[in-house]
Amino acid sequence: MQDIFFTIIIPTYNRASLLKRAVESVIIQTFKNWELIVVDDGSTDNTKDVIAAINNNKIRYIYQENKERSAARNKGIDLSKGHYICFLDSDDYFLENRLDLLHKEIVNRNFPQAFIFTGLKYINGPVLSYSDLEIKSHKNILDYLTYTIIGVPQVCIHKNILRTYRFNEMFRIAEDTELWLRIAQNSEVLYFEDQITVIATEHEERSVNERRYNSGQDQLRTLKHIFSSSHSGKLISPAIKNLRLSNTYFSIARYYLYQKKKSKALINIILSLIYNIKNKQTKHKLNILLNLCYGRILKEYRK
């Protein structure tokens, strides 16, 4: 029996309407040596029926009581048989050459036991791509991984690394960054250039939608853990830490602006400026601050 090269893990929760596209994007891969593990994190919709209707023996459906996506991904890792483990969110999808390009580059590099990441494109939105020069411009790889948010669907990690390092189930936002930093301290990090084969979508139910969720507050909790003396994140440069904290406090402020909670928005705008005043968003933040002082909320946050 042929060894499985790639395991793809999709955690999902009540996204039956989007899940089929994600699963089918794996099925149509031009590279065929893969398995797909769908971990249903306690869905109450027809997720199970969607997977059953596909009827593909390379797909395994696992149901668990709702424990959040970090626990779902860890469950998939436990069950994985592939040499390299990739992740896909149920609201995103792969282009058909995703695994083929990954495989060719892995073979060219003599099967590295590494943390690998590639670019990403948003539907009708920006392309996220990087360069070796950009990566090397940072003081260390931990700085880069903190400054540049690498999404879970962008990565492919050798199974031996994920036998040691798992997602911390205490966190639900920035849980990916927290794991990447622990991995990067002791493992090789590789960027496969010119592979823009992951497509991300925007929709109202995303966990980072600031109109509906205070995701910044959850992110702040994770960052405080990352920047503590007991975490590998203690090696991150102060400037990068402050920039990430500034952006997070601004995210919290935007949530409160959408909720029309002016005093809480004001406090978090001030904290954002304290942590990083030299920022391309500073002018916008000061404009919000002045308006809040006069009891007004900018038009973009009134919707």
Explain the overall architecture.
This protein has 303 residues and is of the alpha/beta class. The chain folds into two domains: 6-200, Spore Coat Polysaccharide Biosynthesis Protein SpsA, Chain A (Alpha-Beta Complex); 215-301, no CATH class. It contains twelve helices and eleven strands. The strands form two sheets. Strands 3-2-1-4-9-6-10 form a seven-stranded mixed sheet, with helices on both faces. A four-stranded mixed sheet has the order 5-11-7-8. The longest helix is centred in the C-terminal third of the chain and has 21 residues, at 238-258.
List its traits:
about 300 residues; alpha/beta; Spore Coat Polysaccharide Biosynthesis Protein SpsA, Chain A; 2 domains; seven-stranded mixed sheet; four-stranded mixed sheet; 12 helices; 11 strands
Structural class call reads alpha/beta
Strand content: 15-25%
Portion of residues within helices? 40-55%
Instruction: Output the CATH topology of the largest domain.
Output: Spore Coat Polysaccharide Biosynthesis Protein SpsA, Chain A
SSE sequence, one letter per element:
EHEHEHEEHEEEHHEHHEEHHHH
Number of helices: 12
Number of DSSP-assigned strands: 11
Whole-Å distance between the termini?
57 Å
Give the CATH superfamily of the largest domain: Spore Coat Polysaccharide Biosynthesis Protein SpsA, Chain A
Categorize the overall geometry: globular
- Low-confidence spans: none
Averaged pLDDT, please?
A: 91
